[in-house]
Batch of 4 targets.
Target 1
Amino acid sequence: MALYDFTAPRLFVDAPLSEGARISLDRAQANYLLNVLRLKAEDPVLVFNGRDGEWKAELAVEGRKAADLVCVLRTREQTAPLDLIYAFAPLKHARLDYMVQKAVEMGAGALQPLLTRRTQATRVNLDRMRSNAIEAAEQCGILGLPDVRDEMNFDKFVNGLEKDRVVVFCDEDAPVANPVEALSKAREARGNNAAKFVVIVGPEGGFVEQERALVAAHERCIRVSLGPRILRADTAAVAALALVQSVLGDWT
Ligand code: SAM
């Protein structure tokens, strides 16, 4: 049996979910269900809010442009997001949209834009990031939204990392070596404690030496190579998160 029911559309709704709860949809959501998906009254829609699990709801049509959803039964219990921070130097528009969506699909519980010395974008459109995160969450079947955080200075972020957080530092200058070995050691060291890690990917211009030295000073830092080729930052995001999830995260 598939992990998730993908026959019904999924919507994130910021409203309490319980049996019989009626959810008023905003215009965009109503338009999507009524006019894009052409759903009819009583058609099923899966809803989640990050707190009450996932519910099967039925469409209550209120005219051509308005609709409500009425919760019928809980399909999945709420689960906690992985304590995985994806920390990255923001990119320009379309590539940032892509990177945010992939990070959500790959299981990031928090998205942390970092202002490194060579970061191209100095301002980050957090509303755009949040709407990309919602779209990805609805698509990939998770039960909550990642925490989209305000951009932060790189040094301040690294200095604020907890001592017990595993820091996976993707460094294009790291010697090419098998990253699985280093990550496996971190997994063994963790024992049965819950996963708690951050994956750091730099800007198109790469990291500067002071930034490398700062991260390397963190006692749980694992400096990893993502192979012998230089990856675009959005490619590195997917590669790094796949690697980390398969050894340290929730793919095992
Ligand atoms: N300054 C680099 C250059 O042009 O030589 C490019 C940096 S790369 C486009 C952006 C980020 O992706 C890097 O800072 C690093 O975090 C990650 N990355 C790309 N290729 C990598 C590799 N082979 N190993 C580890 N990290 C890599």
Target 2
Amino acid sequence: MNELSVTVRQMFQEKKDIVLSIICGFIGGITAVGLFSASGYLISKAALAPPIYTLMVLVATVKLFGIISALSRYGERYFSHRGTFTMLSHLRVAVYEKIEPQFQQVFRRFRSGDMLARIVGDVETLQNFFLRVFYPPIVLCLVFLMTIFFTTIFSIVHALIIFAGFLLTTVIIPLYFSLRQQKVEENLREKRGDFSTEMTELFFGFRDLKIHDSLDEKEALLENTAARYGKEQEKTGIHQLYRETLNAFISLIISVVVLATGIYMISDGELDGIFLAMLLMISLTVFENTTAMAVLPGHLEDSRIASKRLLEVTESGETVEDDGEILELMEAPTIEMRNVSFRYDKEARNTLENINLVFPKGSKTAIVGPSGSGKSTILYLLLRFEKAQSGEISINGKEITKLNQESIWEHANVVLQENHFFYGTIRDNLRIAREDLTDEEMLHALKKVDLESFQLDDPVLEKGANLSGGEKQRLAISRAMLKNSFIWLLDEPTSSLDSLTGAKIYDELYQLAKEDTL
Ligand code: ADP
Ligand code: MG
């Protein structure tokens, strides 16, 4: 159950709601038992035509129990759900905070669809942990113990029968199913992950699949995955139903035993006949609560696996501790790489070997080489997206592994080979360079990259789908220009532009970066 420790920790942040749910659940359960036992007694008593005030007292008791029971049930639902939703939001934040520092590694290990299935679906699943696994057994035990105690006043034998039924339905059977809750649930989550993965691939690759006439194959694959997911769901459903039926069956058997023993004891004169209906009603009502135990093994296993899958994401890579020294720059820095060798995770060969580079303060350097030679990789290392296996990279003599990562990014104007644009407007996309940019500054920057035809309110679609390759590149350059820090890292910034525009933009860049290290 190690997997659940994180979830449990999140859960206990909501102690107040946990306690309130348990209290309300207990009152609701015990008053329901009281309600039905009082009505059983009332029916028997009424048959004997007692004085009317006796009946009035009983009727009032029944009404009172009814109202209290309904209100407490409402309270139980309210507090348990409020607690659960708060727990879920804590959990989402906790997962995100774990993933964020290792975003580079996470997407190398998980496909994006699977990742989404985990963060959305598996977190969602964990809502059942508190609602169906953690507190219902506590409430159930309290209600049962109280009921059994009450029953002993009238008949020890019946108290024992109910106790046996309690052991059977809340302990033995759930335990048995928990132990052999095979791989059903695990398969279900896996299949959901597969389905989500195939779905995102199809969406992302739709155009390429269509062009290459391969859409049908991919669709068939998706349908296949969907069918397997459906099958697993069906299997899980059948298992659950089976457990619930068994539980209901045993509860009924217990009630029959209560009735039969009651009749036997009355004929022997050991029990007053007036209590029989009451005892039967107690047994019928108290076992109604055990349906919760029938679904518990499923939810427990489900939560355990969801928790495990979340842990796989959050614990997959080494978490970069970002408590390094803050990089402070008053002017352009000198950047050095000494004997740097680097190999991508799980790759056989080194991408970079013994690289020695010096970028003096205020210098402009071009790194030229064939495609795949490692130009972009050098940039990733300088930005500390990746970590070199050996060698040293320093800014003004300070090793970057000892520097706070965000403070490095803060001082760098970066244009990567692939730049992301968010759904929104041109203004939104430029503003990520700096929060306090004015419209004039932004328009000015657009002009420098020959994008004066753009309005700041023009829409940008997801991933910049409505922009051409060259437009995207120029927008990224203007974003870097707006940042206006001392380090410039540009990865083939004009590769999608014609040479005239490219030359013009370089002129602008050199103007802006006159004093900077580029
Ligand atoms: P360049 O920018 O010079 O074209 P890159 O630095 O992008 O080259 O890539 C250098 C080499 O590293 C290539 O052989 C490429 O296949 C490999 N590579 C790039 N990114 C990754 C990655 N994320 N995982 C594994 N190998 C990679
Ligand atoms: Mg490259």
Target 3
Amino acid sequence: MNARKKIALVTGGIGGIGTEICRHLAQQGRLVIATHLPAEENSALAWQESQKQAGYDIELAAVDVTSFKSCAAMAQNIVDRFGHVSILVNCAGITRDIPLRKMEESEWSSVLTTNLDSVFNVTRQVINDMITDGFGRIVNISSVNAQKGQFGQTNYSAAKAGMHGFTKALAQEVAKKGVTVNTVSPGYIATNMMNAIPEEILNKIISTIPVGRLGKPDEIARAVEFLCEDGSGFITGSDLLINGGLYMR
Ligand code: CAA
């Protein structure tokens, strides 16, 4: 039998955690599309080539996830080129860490639009096709700092906490349609995002992680892969904490 591959769209797919998610979904037999910023086309093409060298065929889609219009154009382009998106992983995100008393309006709004508005902007484009097809898997990548808060992250913690509210509301709306919506909340994972944290502070944070180290992107991606399996249809509205014990619930 030569069933058509289901299409998986991963926003922020060329980032540290995103790359590992793309690889896991490709291994799962999905046709994977990673998004990148339009201005990052050259680095995205280099990334695609390095994935190919490693044995992964991953498609690219240029989009600004902060723009509803850009997301609509990307989604139409994907439908024209490949078909309906069945799996969506909202992984695009940024940090602009600074205490609130010093935070500029732009540092608030860029984090809220990139990390939270993006979830609406992209999910809204694909949700009706998932409902029509009677199958969908949506995974929103939140953060341990949505749950516990973090000094210097009022913007990021608010946006990431908002993602899980979105997850639980949408999960109820589409539960009877074969579409699941879940959140994965990573702790501190060894990616470039950690480079923005001063070394002394990062070491202090690591000393509070019960497992005693940063997580690996693979340790997040394997959970995303699991939630995206065809057989994971009874898991919806959940929030999977993967943080080395930093926050327990
Ligand atoms: N808790 C309590 N107090 C803290 C603190 C903390 N975590 N961090 C700093 N402070 C204190 C300092 O000791 C200092 O106190 P004094 O003035 O008494 O000496 C004061 O706050 C420093 O305040 P500043 O206004 O000078 O802070 P700053 O402008 O230097 O900014 C910061 C500090 C950039 C926010 C820095 O603390 C930082 O980078 N913190 C880490 C933030 C973080 O964990 N980000 C996660 C990024 S990764 C990610 O987000 C992925 C994910 O999902 C987990």
Target 4
Amino acid sequence: MTRYVYRFGGGANDGAAGDKTLLGGKGANLDGMASIGLPVPPGFTIATTMCARYYEEGEKFPEELFAEVANGIAHIETVTDKKFGDATPTGNGPLLVSVRSGARVSMPGMMDTVLNLGLNDQTVEALAATSGDERFAWDSYRRFIQMYSDVVLCLDHGAFEEALEIAKEDRGFHLDTEMTANDWKALVAKYHELVVEEWGKPFPQDVHDQLWGAVGAVFGSWQAERAKVYRRLNNIPGDWGTAVNVQAMVFGNMGDTSATGVAFTRDPATGENAYYGEFLINAQGEDVVAGIRTPQYLTKDARETAHAKPLSMEEAMPVVYGELAAVFDLLERHYRDMQDIEFTVERGKLWMLQTRTGKRTAKAALKIAVDMANEDLITQEEAVARVDPSALDQLLHPTLDPDAHRDVLTKGLPASPGAASGIAVFDSDVAEKRAEMGESVILVRVETSPEDIHGMHAAKGILTARGGMTSHAAVVARGMGRPCVSGAGALAIDAAAKVCRVAGREIREGDLITLDGSTGEVMAGSVPTVQPELAGDFGTLMVWADKVRRMRVRANAETPHDCQVAREFGAEGVGLCRTEHMFFDDKRITWVRQMILAENEAGRRAALDKLLPEQRGDFVSIFEVMTGLPVTIRLLDPPLHEFLPHAEEDFASVAEAAGVGIETLKRRANELHEFNPMLGHRGCRLGVTYPEIYEMQARAIFEAALEVGSKTGAAPFPEIMIPLVATKRELELMKEVVDRTAQAVFKEQNASVEYHVGTMIELPRAALKAGEIAEVGEFFSFGTNDLTQTTLGVSRDDASRFLTTYVDKGIYARDPFVSLDIEGVGELVQIAAERGRKTRPNIKLGICGEHGGDPASITFCESVGLDYVSASPYRVPIARLAAAQAALKARG
Ligand code: ADP
Ligand code: MG
Ligand code: MG
């Protein structure tokens, strides 16, 4: 027969294994604490499996549960030597219990705990007589009626609170603690009236009815709307169910030698190895967190640091405090992690009511993991596994001073982490100019395009009204390590008038604003920031992560500065150097335009000749920074129209600079217009139609490699990558161009370097035909941004309009441009990896899409055996940690 009730405390530990799946988190840990000999009030847990059963039976309890629960109550009665519902005025008094919900993971939205259950008009008198404290007995009863009416009977709790306030006011009291036994008695009478008024029946006097009402309410709360919403948001399956814990009451409200408190075994904000917590003398249950009275500090140190008057627990109750401190240490050794603890002191005796792994900030997580490994409490590998890689993001960027005031104007998407303050500027040229003059600038745009690169680079932060987490602004900002808030739809930006309106206020050019790219908040004025700390614990954890990691981590970087940052963050090469960004500066863009506007190959070559030395210079500086490491350079990818002006007013000046008539420029721009440029004339299609472009780029790469090789003695290792390949023939043609150019350069210079030619796999056809393509390509890099677009048939620049709804409705678990669609796109990656390796066993495989910095996607990359992941420079440490965790998981 399936068992549903598991006893704990008093030497009877039925759930000895502390199984959270069965007992829920709270029940498992109550059992765990009792089994290591800690003082836990006895009780029992109704297993999570009963929750499902309860719903199967049409929200009724199966017959066998009644007997099991009766046994559970008998267990508590034996251990406490009290009887449930006992109204005799002598002896040990009536048994009171708490009824507490507890799912596998702690879950707001579940039923609140009911305390003091078992009190009625008779037992309250018995409690008063046996405890010798009438005031305590009636205080407990009024608390019970109020809680039970609220969480079990679901009556309007406002009415009860109001009655309490009026009762205090009538007596001229401010604090509950000032109320006398008679005051509480009168309030109980009033509460009885309220229950009849609101519920139509008197308050349940039968203690068993009380108990079953509370148990039913716990199970009922599992399907409450707010619990369902929470589960949906946190991916908690609906069939887990909740457990119910029924436990003997202990009383923190029995006078000045009694207290209740909450504590962490280490500081959850900083991670410092010091006890941290609060307690209240003569209080019960949630009084500490409810803010009815100001709680007191746990330790003397904390009280002194805060210059607080009321004595700390360490000072006021030194003996019990000493016991509590010993319990903290025991619990940390037992659970091998920082614990969040609830305790009560009843007339000088300590009781433990809860322990669980404590929530902590990213900073604390890092410090606690490293400290615990150094204390030999956990292994270095466990330390690596414990820190959430995404949380590192918070640590790698400046953050807003948590104590500073924030005047929040609006909220957009947290597109790129970090915080920045500066003057609002609505135009990239102005941004650049004002930044050159030494001002901190926040670039505010409706959305950004490649033409804004210089403005984005000059800005300290980027704010857009449109676009999602993978909009141009978001992707580029993350790559540059600039904080970015995108899609702040409430902003009405009038760039021409240099003003933006939001929430009835105006931001003009030059006004100070602040962005928090980690929360999406946009604030008026300047908010002070705190700088990140990259050495210390962070550095230590990274060294440990690198020891267990199999995959290499590279960076997506295209400027010497980004490469430098990436190296400092531990990048082991460049996985994606996009060359188009190199063409946007004032001088070069003119030549690029001349090339685009040229009527024939000779004209194009003349323009490309001017670009060659510039491009070579770019590669020289990148190779210099990346000496000894591989650099993957992607040849030109975007459609050419991106290089032409879009605004009517720019045409004249551009035409003049390029040395053509304005009509020619307009005609050519018209010719280049495409209905769907992302699927148009771009990628290797440019190289196939205008091989001289790729030839120039290849030449620049080889000349730069030879130059840096002879200068430094360490020849760089260029990997030349052809974008948007769908067929083997495309790659063959492009490889011929590159190889031919290499031979020419090597002959001219009488020297050579090693290089590879490979391709991005970013079209479904390429993934399917990877076996054939690998006959030519020496490496594959999965361009999962485009591969996601083309596999899902979703344009990432337009997806923000419906993707949120899609994620809400569970069509995709997460934004597929942020976290790889493993089932669909992932399968293509897997197919391509398998087929590519079959043809060329040592083919190098990597990923260079945005997913290369996403932990879940990195876990997938490990499972298909990719050689490396490539992420934007600021995400390199995240990728190192995530790759290490993936390797640990793969080892099992
Ligand atoms: P939550 O999950 O909201 O923390 P709990 O079930 O832990 O709810 O109950 C909240 C508080 O109620 C506990 O911190 C404790 O102070 C009090 N409490 C619960 N059970 C008991 C008990 N058996 N005796 C005394 N106090 C209790
Ligand atoms: Mg609790
Ligand atoms: Mg692409």
